[in-house]
What we know:
Blueprint (H helix, E strand, L loop, with lengths): L1 E8 L2 E7 L10 H4 L2 E3 L5 E3 L16 E3 L2 E3 L13 H19 L9 H5 L1
Antiparallel strand pairs: 1-2, 3-4, 5-6
Amino acid sequence: GTQLTEIRRGDLAWDLEVRLPDNDRAARADLNAFEIALPDGGTVPLSSIVTIDEARGWGGVTRRNGLRTLTVAADVDGRIGNADAITAQLAEGFLPDLVTTTPGLDFEVGGQAANS
């Protein structure tokens, strides 16, 4: 799982983690079937909207200015989608909505996306 935050009630503290049930993370192929929620309330399997390529690399949650930071990067096939439009849609709709419903969460668009 991935630790999202720590919840405190007085002197007690709990780590809040997100993880799929054991039976949904038995194989890498399970990621292809992971259901993504759509704005209309429906769902689609992740494999219907992305191509997942396995590659070696460094990953993980890092810290910047004392805050846990997760960097998300993607290569968009220009014949299928527009990276600027996808980034704008995330920055103007999905991410602000997520921040509103998730205390302590913030986002920043950086790199090439911030310069376009």
